[in-house]
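Whether sequence alone determines local backbone shape is best considered at the level of individual chains. The sequence in question and its structure tokens are set out directly beneath this paragraph.

===
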Amino acid sequence: MDGLPGTKNAQLTMKAENITPLKKMVGPLAPTHYGYSKARFGAEHLLLVAIVTALITYLVLLYGAQIASALLDGLPANARNAFAESVEKLR
């Protein structure tokens, strides 16, 4: 079937031993379709992503300058000057 070396031996053994392939699941609780459904994400996932994105955006807008200055204070002096020069070029 797939051309692998053991496939021919497996088919011969299957015929010689009267082996029948097993079904995946049987019974009333067995799924009718195997694999992934077309819709992988539901509306609740979309709503959760929208809320988290809005929260992160709010926090960055509110505290972004304070976080940037705290990070800038932690940098060595030469990196701080280079950063300040690049910010001044943007203004």
Residues 43-74 form the longest helix (32 residues). Residues 39 and 50 are 18 Å apart (CA to CA). Residues 5-90 form one domain. The mean pLDDT is 80.
